[in-house]
Amino acid sequence: MTSLNILLLNLQSRLLGLVLVVLTSACTVNAAGETEKLNAQKPGIIAVDVAIAKPNTTHPPDIFTGTTAPIKEVLLRSQVDGQLQKLAVEVGDLVQQGQVIGKQDDDVLTTTVNQALAEREAQVAEVANARSQVGSARTDVEEARLALVQARGNVLHLQNASQASIEQARLEAQQNKIDAERQTQLAQAGATNEQAAEQARTLAQRSQQNLVNIQASSVQEITQAQTAVKTAEQALQAAEAQVAIEQGTVDAAQKRVDAQQSVLNQAQEQRSYTALTAPLTGIVMERLAEEGNLLETGDEILRLGNFKQIKVIVQVPERLLSQLRVERSTPITLDAFPNQTFTGKIVRISPLANATSRLLPVEIVMTNPGKISSGLLARVNFVQPQQRQVWVPETALQTNKGSSSTGKVQQAQQSNSSRSGGQQSSETTASQKATLFVLKTTDAKPYVAARSVILGERRNGQVEVIQGLKLGESFVSRSSQPLKDGAFVSRSAISESPLLERQ
């Protein structure tokens, strides 16, 4: 037998097998159809397709990927210019906050500190000298004040003494005038000689002149004393002004000392920056400089991270925003540890979504058991409530008026499509009520019971049942005729295995 004959025989065998399969399928379908027709012909019995209530398995839980990172990450940078003399830690080392982990050259900064210190000491000496001048000026003020008091006392003394002298001279002149007039009268009466009268008149004139002289002398002395008082007052004012001037010099010198102290403090602070200290307690993630490198201000030296907690940031679509909340727990898996599931907690939901992708950053934090490092691939599972609910076909539902809800769903989908520019929406969030028929049995004779259910989302011909149907219950997914509560039914050949419940 040639190879061509063998090939022809193989083809004939395959064609025969295919014909047999087609005939068998046709017979099965015809048998099922005949069964349904017979059941339909029975009075009061309606052929139905029965399904079992189960969760939605066509839409797996939403899983989002992110990258692990320490809860806090800090870059240690150089704060001064200088050579890196020592760096005492390696990648992976644990450091404590405030621990000295490196040193930069501080020779130039030490010289700057010494210069600032010397300048401050010189300015402190200036302040001391200025304060000494203030003391001297205040001594002058006290002396001028004492001189003023003495001058004023001298004026008062002169005034009292002049008044007494003038009063005595006036009394003497007045008495001598009376005596002269009496002697003149006696001489005219011949009681005394003319010479005695002349002497009395001469004495009265001298007494009057002496009064005038005393008055003039008193006025002159008092005027001189008052002039001395004014001079003393001016000297006091000048001394007080000098005190103010010297005090101003002290204040100015003290301000220069304070300014120089600030320069000194800044120089000392700059020098303190040459000692590199850890800004947090954590682990060295990366060395970015080596000993001997000449660093400028702002150059990176080390990257440190606090790994007590791990954060993961994932980009979440806006449709899940209403289901997420801060403090909500969520499972996290890492490809590095495939057999472990970690629990994280949402700590931050960004208020700003990407205008193009409509994604929002969500930050999740979890406790680090000690082995999770940075940069690992993390998968976050936001388990949605509807993924644990019962989902049924749209054909299983009837509205309150008794009609199927399929047409209404199609209208809603068309409306969503027109609002989104022709693109059909995959979700409809509006809830509504409908009627669903649950399969029951009495004496092994199945019937249906109408049950009111509350609906949730709709996806690809499936409807979420929020309330009214439990997992595992048998319900009518499609019927050949409209159903009523208590109607007897027969299960079609394509029905799922029913879980009949006795009433």
How would you explain this protein's 3D organization?
The chain is α+β, with helices and mostly antiparallel strands. It has four helices and 22 strands. The chain folds into three domains: 134 residues, conserved putative lor/sdh protein from methanococcus maripaludis s2 fold, CATH 2.40.420.20; 146 residues, Elongation Factor Tu (Ef-tu), domain 3 (Beta Barrel), CATH 2.40.30.170; 165 residues, Orthogonal Bundle (Helix Hairpins), CATH 1.10.287. 43% of the residues lie in helices and 30% in strands. α2 packs antiparallel against α3.
Helix content: 40-55%
Q: Give the number of domains.
A: 3
What is the CATH T-level topology of the largest domain? Helix Hairpins
Name the overall outline: elongated
Cα end-to-end separation: 71 Å
Q: Identify the CATH class of the largest domain.
A: Mainly Alpha
Beta strand %: 25-35%
The CATH architecture category of the largest domain equals Orthogonal Bundle
Provide the residue-averaged pLDDT: 81
* Number of extended strands: 22
* Rg, nearest Å: 59 Å
